[in-house]
Amino acid sequence: xxxxxxxxxxxxxxxxxxxxxxxxxxxxxxxxxxxxxxxxxxxxxxxxxxxxxxxxxxxxxxxxxxxxxxxxxxxxxxxxxxxxxxxxxxxxxxxxxxxxxxxxxxxxxxxxxxxxxxxxxxxxxxxxxxxxxxxxxxxxxxxxxxx
Length: 147
Prior knowledge:
This is Lipocalin-like domain-containing protein. By secondary structure, the protein is an alpha+beta fold. It contains three helices and eight strands, in the order H-H-E-E-E-H-E-E-E-E-E.
């Protein structure tokens, strides 16, 4: 009888170990933030522009932590790309505090606000404006999640 109880105990223990090892890992804070960034974000304006900026979007993808900018020429023509802030495509990473997106190639963009539920994202950076020879100024891009 003792032997049967011992065997059943080992069997039960092995089931517990097997089932607990199959438990799905919780995503890290960085994975959650990247998931929030994922998608195509239309740049609708910048604090230094008098009019809206249309046709320019940034797409962040989880696979390979890549980004792509559509119509980079319009972004450059609006004098927002001095110092090569954005490239047409590249990769990105997040800093330890998850509030700065480092683009490669490109510069660092601070996440001023991010709310995927209402589709709003604000990214800020410092660059010369309006001319490449001007002193750097703080530029905030307002983005909306594309449908």
